Amino acid sequence: SLRSSNSPHRRRRQSFTAGLDVKAASQELFSDSDDDDDDNNNNNNRSAPDAARKAAHLRRHIASFQDCITAVERCEKPVIVAMHGFSLGLAIDLSSACDVRLCARDAKFAVKEVDIGLAADVGTLSRLPKIVGDFGWVKEVALTARMFGAEEAQRVGFVSRVFENKAEAVRGAVDLAALIASKSPVAVQGTKELLNWSRDHTVQDGLRYTAIWNSAAVQTKDVSAALLSGIQKRKPTFEKL
């Protein structure tokens, strides 16, 4: 699966995403009352909303937003993102949930949430440290909201490749997707699952989970098909999964 900005509007095409719609979010999250309060307190519209109910409403809203981003990570197929131009705030959340991140040389990144008075809450603070492996760098960019460019993103490991422009980045992503798609889907989907599991567990837990997973997966006929094609020096073909 490939993600890239493809807006028909010229200005929007210059960016992957500028992040959250602050006006819409503020209206949704910080209104004086929520729908539940309105239904249950029709005669008390002037009273302050109950803090516990307001917190429950906000928690459900945030959790729903988090689930939207996590759906990318949970996708069984590998997800590749090609970023360009301004890739701010939500762009970091979304791309951090992807499996492979590529970008154009003009890409400008920032974890912008502190500039609007928030801690990033839909994935960046949980995923970015595990991607780049430099906790100090993550704290710096998250606490300052400073911009960083494509070269720095590649240096710390946030993106794996940098291309000269958007068109080349998208073409590179498509080529990479085609290469992955030529492999056994059993092997590809299993590899993604095992990598994600191992990232969040101990080495021993990862080894045990891999053994259980592969006790079923190695029984696929894709193994013999791949080995035979190597001997016969031909490209293997695999059934869809």
Walk me through the structure.
This protein is an alpha/beta fold. The chain has 2 domains: 53-174, 2-enoyl-CoA Hydratase, Chain A, domain 1, CATH 3.90.226.10; 184-232, Lyase 2-enoyl-coa Hydratase, Chain  A, domain 2 (Orthogonal Bundle), CATH 1.10.12.10. It has 12 helices and 7 strands. The protein has helices at 10-13, 22-29, 35-40, 51-74, 90-96, 124-132, 135-144, 150-156, 166-181, 185-199, 203-217, 222-232, and strands spanning 2-3, 80-83, 86-88, 100-104, 108-110, 148-149, 161-163. The chain has a 4-stranded parallel β-sheet with strand order 1-2-4-7, with helices on both faces. The protein has a 3-stranded mixed β-sheet with strand order 3-5-6. α10 runs antiparallel to α11 (203-217). The radius of gyration is 22 Å and the shape is globular. It starts with a strand and ends in a 9-residue tail after the last helix. Mean pLDDT is 88; it is low at 33-37.
Portion in helices: 40-55%
Strand content: 5-15%
Could you give the order of strands across the largest sheet? 1-2-4-7
The first-level CATH class of the largest domain is given as Alpha Beta
- Extended strand count: 7
General shape: globular
Give the radius of gyration. 22 Å
Low-pLDDT runs: 33-37
H/E topology pattern:
EHHHHEEHEEHHEHEHHHH
Largest beta sheet, briefly?
Answer: 4 strands, parallel
Number of helices: 12
Can you say what the CATH homologous superfamily of the largest domain is? Answer: 2-enoyl-CoA Hydratase, Chain A, domain 1
CATH topology of the largest domain: 2-enoyl-CoA Hydratase, Chain A, domain 1
Q: Give the second-level CATH assignment, the architecture of the largest domain.
A: Alpha-Beta Complex
Kindly name the structural category: alpha/beta
Mean pLDDT: 88
Query: How many structural domains are formed by the residues?
Result: 2
GO biological process, one term: fatty acid beta-oxidation
Organism: Aspergillus ochraceoroseus
Biased composition (Acidic residues): 31-40
GO cellular component, one term: mitochondrion
